Amino acid sequence: MSMGQSVLVVRSVKRLAVNLKIKIDGSSKPNPGKSSCAAVVYIDDELAFSTYRYLGLKTNNIAEHQGLILALRIAVLLKADNVVVESDSRVAVNHFSGAWNANNGDLALLVQRERKLAAKIRYLSVIWVGRANVMPAHNLIEERMNEFQAAGK
Known about the structure:
Strand order of the largest sheet: 3-2-1-4-5
CATH class: Alpha Beta
CATH superfamily: Ribonuclease H-like superfamily/Ribonuclease H
Helix content: 25-40%
Strand content: 25-35%
Radius of gyration: 15 Å
């Protein structure tokens, strides 16, 4: 699988009457630079799976928004009823909620995509948490980026 590919296969799922928590992070090194995002998914507080996506050359804010889109796509694919997304990005959380305007055209388009996905989820909370709470997603990004760097990619 190349750096730009992420694969999530869901065959047939009825609506899940469970609590889905998704911890997300996005990163760009430098900013702008090589960017990626990750989501770590818990079902009823049990680790279910994690996924990573390399984004190419982007800004950190775009990577954070792409992490939110990744989480929302997962929730929609799993047909989850009750979803909590935790992010350490005040920018992404406040853009999504409408508390802050996304004036940048690229960010505004990402927020539109987020809101379209969110409309398909019955109960959704997107909340800001400190970095310590999203370390599983942050660590996944760091591990994968280090692997790619070591492989010369």
